Amino acid sequence: MSDLRLDATQLDRYSRHVIMDEVGPEGQQRLLEGRVLVVGAGGLGSPAIQYLAAAGVGVGIVDDDVVERSNLQRQIVHGDDDVGRPKVDSAADYVRRLNPDVDVDTHETRLTPENVGELVEGYDVVLDASDNFATRYLLNDHCVLADTPLSHGAIYRFEGQVTTFENGWPGADDDSSAERDRAGPCYRCIFPEAPEPGTVPDCATTGVLGVLPGTVGCIQATEVVKLLLESGDSLEGRLLMYDAMGMTFETVEIRRNPTCPVCGDEPAIDSVEDVSYEETCSISAD
Q1: pLDDT in tens, 123-138
Q2: Is 1 a domain residue?
Q3: What is the CATH number of the domain that holds 90?
Q4: Do the bridges between strand 150-156 and strand 159-165 make them parallel or antiparallel, or are there none, so unpaired?
Q5: pTM of full prediction above 0.90
């Protein structure tokens, strides 16, 4: 932690953090020094970007899509005037208007095995706000291999799920990396392979309650803030499931699978190039 250097404007902006014993000026400084990569500037990414930026956290935004009018019912970081613009540009403009403290980097691209390492490098935490299984598995595998904590969220119609994969966070230095805690599971421990293509319809086919990703994305942002503060209990080892229609939350314990191909005792994946991130996202046979 560098020397505290909150100026008068920052003390005013973040005053409700600074007066909390659990945050204080030291914690706020930690947030200002934090960097989070948000993959997806849609329904989940929008509230996550908003609240991370409001807290002073530096954000990188990855998305290769443009704003469509049908997005606006749930993707609240964008407005009607943004229709047709790249989502990363629209989201970045929102962040700059909200909080000039925040450094925001845009990556108008689709995540691939070739660029995931370069994109994730330099960020403390990754927040997965993607809407497809290929990206989820790719992010999971890379973050496990790179010892980078990952916040996972997903939604379907009226339901959402959130968990956190700490991947040894807080990270140790290079000399002690072998000692990092590997007790927690990864995404593949819960879902070893993706469903067959076409078996899980997307929101364009089935619809989605507009406020649902707001709830799930905010929970993801909360998890990330706690990681950066190194405070509180994360959802590591727990899958939080939310039913908006019944207004119920259920938490299910999840454990590391010792035979998991990426985080297990004898992992088969030591590079994302070992995996075909199409179809079921399974390991290549050769």
Answers
A1: 999 999 999 999 999 9
A2: no
A3: 3.40.50.720
A4: antiparallel
A5: yes
Q: Choose among 162, 204, 187: nearest CA to 269.
A: 187
Determine whether 189 is an active site residue. Answer: no
- Please, are residues 188 and 262 in contact by the beta-carbon 8 Å criterion? yes
Q: Which string of b and e fits 110-140 if b means at least 16 CB within 10 Å?
A: ebebeebeebbeebbbbbbbbbebbbbbbbb
What is the extent of the structural domain holding 119? Answer: 14-274
Dist CA 150 CA 162 (whole Å): 11
Beta bridge partners of 78: none
Residue 177 has pLDDT above 80, yes or no: no
pLDDT tens digits for 64-97?
999 999 999 999 999 999 999 999 999 999 999 9
Q: Is residue 25 part of a domain?
A: yes
Q: With CA atoms as reference, report the closest residue to 226 among 236, 216, 211.
A: 236
Do the domain assignments include residue 19? Answer: yes
| Structural domains counted in the chain | 1
**Tokens representing 155?**
């939604």
**For residue 205, with 0-12 CB atoms within 10 Å meaning exposed, 13-18 middle and 19 or more buried, which class applies?**
exposed
Catalytic residue from among 186, 189, 203, 263: 203
